Amino acid sequence: MAKDGNEKGSGKMGINTRLAHSGNNPHDYFGFVNPPVVHASTVLYRNAAAMAGRSQKYTYGTRGTPTTDALAQAIDALEGSAGTIVVPSGLAAVTIPLLAFVSAGDHLLIVDSVYHPTRNFADTILKRLGVEVEYYDPHIGAGIAALIKPNTKVVFTESPASNTFEVQDIPAIAKVAHTAGAIVMMDNTWATPLYFRPLDHGVDISIHAATKYPAGHSDVLLGTVSANESHWEQLYESFCTLGCCAGPDDVYQVLRGLRTMGVRLEHHQRSALAIASWLEGQKGVARVLHPALPSHPDHDLWKRDFCGSSGIFSIVLAGGGQKEQHAFLDALRIFGLGYSWGGYESLAVPVWLGDRVVAKGPYEGPLIRLQIGLEDVDDLKADILGGLAAATA
Ligand SMILES: Cc1ncc(COP(=O)(O)O)c(C=O)c1O
Fold first, then answer.
1. Of 307, 302, 306, 311, the residue nearest 270 (C-alpha)
2. Is the pTM of this model over 0.90?
3. Quick one: which of 144, 247, 284, 375 has the most CB atoms within 10 Å?
4. C-alpha 360, offset from chain centre
5. Do you know which InterPro entries this protein is assigned to (predicted)?
6. How many helices and strands, by DSSP H and E, does the chain display?
């Protein structure tokens, strides 16, 4: 679906130039800058022979349209992938590639600090289908060799970790996994392909909740899954078999969001770093979990592999429990209390680590995850100070 992309977007040009021009060629549609939003189930064939041979570019709405192709080709240009599927949510971008590649009797290794619904899918549906699921330490690196079995099919990574922001040694893990014949998947939502390109580091399948920074406005759910050459065909065929295509209006909104993602991300990065480093000196904060801070235990690894940081990180309060965590959250006036991230507005959520088997801490107090939006930093700092005062009162 995204194989014959617009070359204009895939060269050596700067990232914002590529974001502005990747995906569609305006001259394919009378020069209109943006592609059409194609609402489609039926595609007509010129004759019975074309129908029998399926010998035309588009055959049915579930298998791709000019709108989904525009987004998929833009993502391919960013990821360096052979093909991209566009699915209805970030969670679907996790479940569909897993369903595409694991079978009954296979062993699946998942990082313990994974996004909770990924774990839930593995622990329920995949286990029911006969997949053996095992969780590993985010710091395992090449040590994953000790966990690999003859039936290990997929090593699932997510870096930095959901909520606790450990950085994984992706190249080391990929090397070991490939030696054993396993596939490496990565949920790369935090960094976006602007700040980390998984396929360049040995990952076979890169996953994004495009709901976050690509969409950018907290009003769309979408996911993308990008594969290297050797895994693209199986991914695409499974996608078609499952029928999990995304709606055209949502796909269009994400393509629209992509055009400004570079400038938005720069702002998120700058504000989040300013607030994270300021928080390190604040009373009531034991630790700030942000891999771009030199104090972060995985900072060197982050610096080696990533070329930027986005807008979410966590803080550890200096002691206390749920009472202090709730007092902090309830005192906030600008930060909303709500799930997801990557939108223009700041959000805060309590972190729960009760599902973890390895990466559980210890932490000095309760954790709170902050998504730093596009508001003014001084206003956000004042809001956080209110939260800290309430937590320490
Ligand atoms: C790391 C990560 N992956 C995937 C998802 C799922 O995205 P969606 O909300 O679009 O299902 C999320 C959502 O919070 C996430 O944080």
1. 311
2. yes
3. 144
4. 22
5. Cys/Met-Metab_PyrdxlP-dep_enz, Cys_b_lyase_bac, PyrdxlP-dep_Trfase, PyrdxlP-dep_Trfase_major, PyrdxlP-dep_Trfase_small
6. 13, 12
Instruction: Give the tokens for residue 39.
Output: 């609402």
91 lines ligand 1 (CB under 6 A): yes
Over its C-alpha atoms, the chain yields an Rg (Å, rounded) of 21
Any atom of ligand 1 within 6 Å of the Cβ of 187: yes
Give the Å distance between the CA of 117 and the centre of ligand 1.
8
**7 pLDDT exceeds 50?**
no
Q: Whose CA is nearest to atom 15 of ligand 1?
A: 115
> Residue 55: which pLDDT band, with cuts at 50, 70 and 90?
confident
Q: Is 89 in the pocket of ligand 1 (CB under 6 A)?
A: yes
Q: Any alpha helices (H) in the chain, and if so which ranges?
A: 15-21, 48-53, 66-79, 90-101, 116-121, 127-128, 170-179, 192-195, 229-242, 248-279, 299-305, 322-331, 377-392
Q: Which domains does the chain have, with CATH numbers?
A: 13-255 (3.40.640.10), 260-390 (3.90.1150.10)
Residue 2 has pLDDT above 70, yes or no: no
